[in-house]
Design brief:
homotetramer; mainly alpha; Tetracycline Repressor, domain 2; 9 helices; about 75% helix; DNA-binding
DNA sequence: CATGAATGAGACTTCATTCAT
DNA sequence: TATGAATGAAGTCTCATTCAT
């Protein structure tokens, strides 16, 4: 197949994945019909089957793309350094990135769990990201900014869990301002304990 | 209708809700067929319609029951006092309670959102529980155990978000031991900052 | 079985038939559920099965009872003599009788058509009644009241058809007063032609 | 949407309505399953839902089409003039037209009664047709062919009721020849009274 | 390549009938 | 006998997928 056609196919798949991801995130996998994806793109149902052989294939592609997009979030987190972590601006910036790649519901992960290699890839990714965060904390520790008694791995895990917990509380009706304040307060305590206590 | 019959009907509804809750939690609302609930109970699907006029009615009842059951968790949290909060035993006890009423996916909340009064009831419950937790922290603060500079509302919100974030990470494959350690470490820092800093 | 019990059973069957006939006439056979009949009588579904082994058996009994009740109408028709036929009072009297045994829809006859002997009984009844009407007209003819050139059998058939056509137009919204006037006018012409033309 | 597609959709709907009308008329609305309509057309049941969103929508369309087809019958009636009315040929011609659009049972009208505007359209149509017939009789009356003492509105109503009564007697087993004779005899009397009595 | 009509498996729901109490 | 909970066949409707144009 000529290169141009291949590229076109890739571009088409990307467009499908983009629209499907939005719909899956908004309505869930089972509540999204093939025709919803097609309508959202302004094409016909049949066209989608030129690029994906089933709805399940789209789901797999959506999850892969989702993970890739989420890497951005991780990078921002890591690139920010630790100093700005305990600020409302950081919370908002992270939230904006997360919203641009909204969370996928458990229905999607349940379906995807049939695909062992995909699940393994997820796990490895998550661990890699966590480890990078831990490494960053360890550097700070080595520099004496975090005192030696603190275990950085649980700290990293806790910070990420706090972030996820606050973001998910938003979809249950919590006010953004209140979630932001909680983040700032908790992070201040956590980092004060670790950074300032000289 | 005689009282005995009414009681039987209530008991039957409770049994249906129990089985439905388990299935909804495991597979999600749309992936649970009426026949799954029936099979799980060892009855025919027709029987269920004696007690609920539609699958949606079951969903509403499941959510109400879920909220009621979750109140237990809240009570344990509040009854524990603050001293045991930063322990692995506390984490495990809470986790056991949460597992006995496993989380419901967003598909269920999406459907239930059609029921305005139910949603309002949820919101009011959540706020009430959060407020009780805040009150408890405020007492500690009044007693001087938490120093005056700390805002207890964000603190309470953050602790609950941390708990939720850690629990949900478990379903994505995180090791329980690691989540427990994270809880203990973070809570130690949070409470040390507030309680021990004399 | 003792006679008293038999009589009780007959009475019970009659009550069921009465309620079923009303409902079948109002809603049709398929739109009437067994529980509707039971509720209408203030008994339970199960009780009905003590007296009829199926819904179809009730239908047969309803049709038999209906035919028997309709005989009243026929008798009134025949007993009135011919002189009062062309009056609004006659029309109203017949209508009242017909309303007391409201018409059964085609769904019921369609079902009953499976029962050959019942259908045969209907046919024979109808013919018998028509013949009695014809005989009456023939007597009038013999007395010279109806002139010899008129064929009484078609006349009888036409008068009955006119009656049925007018009554059924009522259920499609025709005003009773207008149907009554039509009856009187037409009957006046028909009988004037036959009776007065001396 | 291109015109060609629209036309195809219209044609498909017409085909569905045609088959549904036949089945509704033969078996009644509730006894006709969607799969019966589909089988009758040689398509799958799913296909029908491309054109009608529910069985009830088909019912509405069937009733509209039925009324339109019935207009033919009315036109034949009116176009025939009054002279041929009292003939067996007229009876047969009308019967053929009616059979080509067989009557719909009360179950259908009961269902359709939910649709107020449709019911209103029926009523207006019926009245319009009756009025046209009355106008025709009035013309004859003005020409002196019907004498002045006769009220044409009841006469028209009676003739239509006679026709309906005779046609419906056919479905209860009456011999066509006998119904035809009754029509001719009665109409002869009615029109002789009105036309010949010079 | 794109379209959308058609297919048919499968979900929810109804209701005549049975049967333990 | 009476009750009403339970059964399961059957009906309406949905939607992923196929395929002729």
């Amino acid at each position: 197949m000529p290169k141009v056609v291949l590229e076109y196919k890739e571009e088409a798949k990307r467009r499908i994945v983009k629209h499907a991801m939005k719909l899956f995130s908004e309505r869930g996998y089972y509540q999204t019909r093939m025709i919803d994806i097609a309508n959202s793109m302004g094409v016909s149902k049949g066209a989608i089957y030129q690029y994906f052989s089933s709805k399940y294939e789209i789901l797999i592609a959506v999850l892969e793309a989702h993970t890739t997009l989420r890497e951005q979030e991780v990078r921002s987190f890591l690139d920010s350094g630790l100093s700005s972590l305990a600020t409302g601006e950081f919370f908002d910036r992270m939230l904006a990135i997360r919203m641009s790649t909204p969370p996928l519901g458990p229905d999607i992960f349940r379906e995807a769990a049939r695909n062992k290699s995909l699940m393994e890839w997820f796990r490895i990714n998550s661990e890699k990201w966590l480890q990078e965060f831990v490494d960053l904390l360890n550097e700070q520790k080595k520099d004496g900014v975090i005192r030696s008694g603190v275990d950085t791995e649980p700290l990293a895990r806790g910070i990420l869990a706090l972030r996820d917990g606050l973001y998910s509380s938003l979809s249950l009706g919590t006010d953004i301002a209140k979630a932001r304040t909680a983040w700032v307060e908790i992070m201040r305590i956590l980092l004060k304990e670790n950074l300032d206590e000289a």
